[in-house]
Amino acid sequence: MISIALAGKPNAGKSTFYKAATMADVDVANYPFTTIDANRGVSSVRTDCPCLERDERCGNEACHDGKRYVPVELLDVAGLVPGAHEGRGLGNQFLDELTNADAILNVVDASGGTNEEGEPVEVGSHDPVEEVDFIEEEMNMWLAGIIERNWETVERQSRSPGFDIDDALAEMLTGFGATEADVAASLRELEYPDNPRDWTDEHREALARDVRARTKPIILVANKADVAPEENVERLRETGKPVVPATAEGELALRQAVEAGVVDYDPGDDDFDIVGDVSDEQEQGLERIRAVMQEWGGTGVQQSLNEAVYDLLDQITAYPVQNESKWTDGQGNVLPDANLLPRGSTPRDLAYAVHSDIGDGYLHAVNAKTDREISDSYELEEGDVVKIVSTAK
């Protein structure tokens, strides 16, 4: 399962975002380090369900009238403060939790209402742009520290015949989520001595920055955009980073209103309907959320997850079925599963994603939309429905 981590300084709204995105019961409070132990839960990305191409909706519980929600892991950890890579705050604990994340949502307090330590200050008095580079730098220096601590092993290996620095670094960085291809791509971009004993701190830091950027890409979530000075969001966008304006509190309020039966809303919608009785005060609060949604195209919570998975990580959604004409599994369930795969994946990759035995026994695949067999080299597209024919059952 794709894993997305929420990063940011304390009190930027990470736990509120997490609770809104997962509806899990977590502590949300207006003081630093509300989160001590990592919260790990399941959220979803949203895409168009292939059932929209048929006369009837699929009826899957993850499909809301053609809006398909595909599960991803969401991780919320303790807030980051300057010097975290040196152990300040809960820094090392936080950074270690990021190891298995595929992408990072840097939740920034766009309102400027908290200082760099996460302590409440007057709205607009802190510059949120300072939170952009500081998170990246803490992550980069943390990884540089890991490389530094393990460098003696690389130097020792370099004395052996047949030493290959690509292999040595890939072995070191596998635990960080880097593949051999990631390491090779980073080394192609860098200038460095052939002998590891001649590497300096600058060489190791350059490697850390490049590997981090490849393996832990970051999206800025401009949280508290509903109360942020207008220019703050624009200044965040001027950093050149991908930015999604958001109100995690607004999303949480909507999801709680849905549970209470007073609002009709699906995560990722750009509007909602009030369908139950609400007080005047509640209605005013909902209308304030609606105004923000109209300005930004939604609350930003679902949009952040979607952009991380479908844009930053370049994933597509494919739907394996057993019956190519009815789009069902062996129990007659229509479009029972949705798999996230990297763009460029083939039917055999989908087979392995379903189960290793299905992949090992792969024979061929059928495009259920066209009822035609597709080649092993066919690159799956978003929304493909595929029957996998395998010797495994």
Structure description:
With 393 residues, this protein is α/β, with parallel strands linked by helices. Among the domains are: 190 residues, P-loop containing nucleotide triphosphate hydrolases (Rossmann fold, 3-Layer(aba) Sandwich), CATH 3.40.50; 75 residues, Beta-grasp domain (Ubiquitin-like (UB roll)), CATH 3.10.20.30. The strands form 3 sheets. Strands 1, 2, 3, 4, 5, 6 and 7 form a 7-stranded mixed β-sheet that branches. Strands 11-10-14-12-13 form a 5-stranded mixed β-sheet. Strand 8 and strand 9 form a beta hairpin. Helix 3 packs across helix 6 and helix 5 crosses helix 6. The protein is flat.
Q: CATH topology of the domain at 3-38 and 77-137 and 217-309, what is it called?
A: Rossmann fold
N-to-C order of helices and strands? EHEEEHEHHHHEHEHEEHHEEHHEEE
DSSP strand count: 14
Helix/strand structural class = alpha/beta
CATH class of the domain at 3-38 and 77-137 and 217-309: Alpha Beta
N- and C-termini, Cα separation: 23 Å
Throw out a few tags for this protein.
393 residues, Rossmann fold, alpha/beta, 7-stranded mixed sheet
Write the layout of secondary structure elements.
Blueprint: E1 3-7, H1 14-22, E2 39-48, E3 63-64, E4 67-76, H2 91-97, E5 103-109, H3 130-157, H4 165-173, H5 180-189, H6 201-215, E6 218-223, H7 230-237, E7 243-245, H8 248-259, E8 263-264, E9 273-274, H9 280-296, H10 301-312, E10 315-321, E11 339-342, H11 347-354, H12 356-360, E12 362-367, E13 372-374, E14 384-390
Parallel strand pairs: 1-4, 1-5, 5-6, 6-7, 10-14
Antiparallel strand pairs: 2-4, 3-4, 8-9, 10-11, 12-13, 12-14
Helix pairs in contact: 1-8, 3-4, 3-6, 4-5, 5-6
